[in-house]
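B., you asked whether I could sanity-check this one before it goes into the benchmark set. Here's the sequence:
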Amino acid sequence: MLGPVILAASRSDKMRRLISAAPVTKPVVDRFIPGETVDQVVPIIRDLTGKGLEVTMDVVGEDITTPEQATAARDAYLDLIERLKQLDLGTKAEMSIKLSMFGQALEGGHELALANVRPVVEAAAAIGTTVTLDAEDHTTLDSMFAIHEELRKDFPQTGCVIQAYLFRTEADARRLAESGSRVRLVKGAYKEPAEVAYQQKTETDKAYVRILKILMEGEGYPMIGSHDPRLISIAQELARKAGRKLDEYEFQMLYGIRSDEHLRLAAEGHRMRVYTAYGTDWYGYFMRRLAEKPANLLFFARSILTKG
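And here's what the prediction gave me:
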């Protein structure tokens, strides 16, 4: 399977230098990451929301090694919020945050990440929007869920992400659904051991449906993070059976992937949110997108063959 190989490459400094230097890389990366600065992505936000779509913004960069870098990540999000305030989009533009960027893996990282993320959540609430905490590898999840629970005491709209390929996720989904949380369900993009995660796509897909049923029948707000046409159809049917209105759940897809489907779902009246990343430290994010979906890798390979 190519996925684990690509994920290993995402952690390789040698591969980072090689891929970053390739002439074809930038135009391919631009498909998934439309800018490096807030100024560059503001027109993208305007364009997407002008088409009836919603966005969740991710400032990319996870290799944090000092508290100062974590503070800089926090400030990057606060700068983004200032720009979103001017656009006055409310919940049409929310933010996604990886706690690793906020210092979670450093000494005293749990407390540091909570201290850094709280002002971002407060600032988001002040402009009428919210934050979703992204899931990372399984060793970080207890900390992420604890921070999520703490933030929800004052900001109950704070969301989190769960990953269908982890064995623990059905139990996590039940707990979050009972508490009325906003929850984004994804398949999962990190290489996890067989002791904690399904290794076969078919098993992950089955788990995704089971978990989505829990979320749809619960008290929370499900966010379906998938590009899979079959899972999207199943999600619509589960929502119908659960008696959910179109504004009581939403679909989420990555910027640059199945853009026609974004517009189709929005035209049908669904809430369709586009996960849009930006920033200079794009390499890890880009490589995981390749690992998640073979079509992304084929797109990259064709670009190399035709432009290299």
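One thing to flag: Residues 137 and 190 are 6 Å apart (CA to CA). Otherwise nothing jumped out at me.
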